[in-house]
From TrEMBL:
Protein's name in the database: ORF2
Family: Belongs to the patatin family.
Species: Anabaena sp. UHCC-0399
PANTHER family tied to this protein: XYLOSE ISOMERASE
Domain PNPLA: 303-509
InterPro entries in UniProt: Acyl_Trfase/lysoPLipase (IPR016035), ConA-like_dom_sf (IPR013320), LamG-like (IPR006558), PNPLA_dom (IPR002641)
């Protein structure tokens, strides 16, 4: 009988859905806009609670807020809320005094992107339950009854935020309701497709989110009149965080009401003073006069992209700017593209061909910003228990599993092989068992799979494998194994190429020299360093000092993470300086051949795994600032690239 009842309830919920009730709701841009309801007595519900809303989600991101006053730094926790779980479901979150905050998930694939779903979470003082479209999806018992509100956080719609994190919602939200009782499945089903009056027993907050366009006040339809203010954190400043979703959004038939801008003071981290100093090559320290009428032609053009984890946003946005100004894909502008770690992922993405269109790339540079801005929190996903253990957990094993990284790179690259790249690519990694650098190359003429000094491989390997290998940063991710017949043990066991070439410009320049020699042998027109154009993009030069008084007492554990940062940054700067001396420049600097686009980062932005919303915002601002400050130089570069 229990099974029959559950089946009947599910069928009833399905019968109630979407066609007979289509919410209009408000549109949230996934960037800067949300609704602040403040701190009100009615929101501090002691025990029994029900949260409800209709959502049409366009992008999944773990902990993205729908309706929440959760405060969770790992050490300090409080509140309740409905949030996205990052795995095609939702969280019902709750903090009680004797336990840490509980995140009860509706389970993977319980909601679909670009579809309306009714969601609800209930708590009766003993048990949490979460519902999707009127059907219970998960439940769990709790240790005690009261909800903990210390510290008390503002109740917000369309974002999760505490003192150092914020995750905004992208999509539409409607019919937000809070009750001071635990509603049953039958009660949820009975009301979820109806507009409420506002005086229903137990209803303490009701925001239909169907107010007229142009309003900045969101009406609470209950007698409590706890109206909300629409907050725009940038106050008219365009800030692109969430890029276009990979899934196309179906045409919208219902009316959409877009949340307008407000004129209140900004509250974002952008108010904080950030010192971002451009790192400029010698040849560009003085303002250059335009060279549009005296541009030399360069028979060989190199693009090199540094490693740097989430900071890959910076070179990706610079490349987006180059594509915008030239109106050409990056792959068509260069003869060789080299990239390490996060730069390798970008290089591979820029050269992956469309199906049935071998010379057209699958992705623009703008698309690749998505890997970091939208999926960074999946790549650098750390379970809650690991966050609580902190550095102790990292001593025992890599900080992150490779599962999220593998999923995202599979999504972007599939089974495309390296040799299919539409422009020659060079992707460094290092085999820790063979103890040899391994370069993934799309040029089969350079294949060398037996050397004890340096391997060049490509045939039989995929772009996804190269991306996983070059980004397997020690201490962050486990080494990546690829089956092969090249080695006796049957594998390449690879780690991040940044351990020897985080700035791969030197490798790329040497490859060009080798290529020129091969051209001579074939009777083709060769090139030299005198007419090679080199563009090198950094992910931010690091400035955090390691004081002697601290470092002198470090042992193996103390040096582990600082050593990696020092090695990566040291390689970047040394190679940059040497290439600057190697590539010829004219006396008046008008015929610049080497472009190094890099900035010194404030130490708060140095972490290569910080995928939090505010950090991504700031990295985007770094890129925008550098583009603005060096716009004439970028114009000159673009002119050389298209000639």
């Amino acid at each position: 009988m229990v099974k029959d009842n559950e089946q009947n309830q599910s069928e009833a919920a399905v019968a109630l859905q979407p066609n007979q009730f289509t919410p209009s709701g408000l549109v949230f841009d996934g960037k800067d806009i949300y609704i602040d309801l403040g701190k009100k007595a009615e929101f501090k519900i002691a025990q029994q609670i029900t949260l409800e809303a209709w959502i049409n989600c366009q992008a999944q991101r773990r902990r993205t807020g729908i309706i929440t006053n959760v405060f969770d730094t790992g050490q300090i926790e409080s509140g309740y809320g409905l949030l996205l779980d990052g795995k095609s479901g939702i969280f019902f979150a709750l903090k009680t005094p004797s336990k840490g905050i509980q995140y009860l998930s509706s389970k993977e694939n319980s909601i679909q992107l670009n579809h309306w779903h009714h969601i609800a979470g209930t708590y009766d003082g003993k048990r949490m339950r979460v519902y999707v479209d009127g059907v219970e999806k998960a439940t769990k018992a709790t240790a005690d009854s009261n909800i903990d509100y210390n510290p008390e956080n503002d109740l917000v719609i369309g974002i999760y935020q505490d003192n150092n994190e914020s995750y905004p919602f992208q999509g539409k939200i409607a019919e937000v309701r809070i009750w001071n009782k635990a509603r049953s499945e039958a009660e949820i089903q009975a009301d979820m497709t109806h507009i409420l009056v506002g005086n229903e027993p137990g209803l303490v907050g009701y925001w239909p989110l169907s107010d007229a366009p142009g309003t900045i006040i969101i009406q609470d339809k209950t007698n409590h009149a706890n109206h909300g203010n629409i907050i725009d954190k940038t106050v008219g400043v365009k800030t692109e965080i969430s890029r276009e979703n990979q899934q196309p959004t179906p045409p919208q038939s219902e009316s959409q009401e877009v949340i307008p801008k407000t004129t209140q003071p900004p509250t974002s981290m952008l108010e904080q003073t950030q010192v971002i100093i451009p790192e400029t090559p010698k040849a560009t320290k003085t303002k250059q006069e335009s060279t549009k009428n005296k541009t030399s032609k360069y028979p060989y053009k190199i693009l090199s992209i540094d490693g740097g984890g989430i900071r890959g946003i910076i070179p990706a946005m610079i490349l987006e700017e180059i594509e915008t100004r030239t109106q050409k894909p990056i792959a068509s502008l260069f003869d060789l593209i080299a990239g390490t770690s996060t730069g390798g992922i970008i290089a591979l993405g820029l050269t992956k061909p469309q199906l049935n269109a071998t010379k057209k790339p699958s992705y623009t540079a703008k698309d690749l910003v998505n890997i970091f801005a939208e999926h960074g929190n999946v790549i650098f996903y750390e379970p809650l228990y690991a966050e609580l253990l902190g550095e102790f957990d990292e001593i025992l094993k890599p900080k992150y599993t490779s599962e999220g990284r593998n999923d995202i790179l599979t999504q972007y690259f599939g089974s495309t092989t390296i040799v299919e790249a539409i422009t020659e690519i060079l992707i460094p990694s290092y085999d820790i068992e063979q103890r040899v650098p391994v370069l993934f190359s799309s040029n089969l003429n350079k294949e060398n799979n037996t050397s004890r000094k340096l391997r060049k491989i490509g045939e039989g390997f995929t772009m996804k494998e190269a991306a996983m290998a070059t980004s397997a940063a020690p201490t962050y991710f486990a080494p990546y194994r690829i089956p092969t017949s090249h080695n006796e043990n049957g594998f390449y066991t690879l780690v991040d190429g940044g351990v020897f070439a985080n700035n791969p410009t030197g490798l790329a320049v040497i490859e060009s020299i080798i290529g020129a020699k091969e051209a001579i042998k074939k009777g083709e027109e060769p090139w030299t360093l005198d007419n090679t154009l080199v563009v090198s993009l950094g992910t931010g030069s690091l400035t955090k000092p390691y004081p002697y008084q601290e470092a002198k007492n470090w042992g193996l554990l103390g040096w582990a993470r600082p050593m990696l940062n020092i090695v990566l940054d040291g390689v970047n700067q040394a190679i940059s300086s040497q290439i600057e001396e190697l590539i010829p420049q004219s006396e008046d600097k008008s015929q610049q051949q080497y472009y190094r686009l890099q900035a010194y980062l404030d130490e708060s932005l140095e972490a290569m795994d910080n995928a939090k919303f505010n950090n991504i915002r700031m990295l985007i601002q770094v890129a925008k600032q550098m583009i603005a400050e060096r716009t004439e130089e970028i114009d000159e570069l673009c002119n050389k690239l298209v000639n």
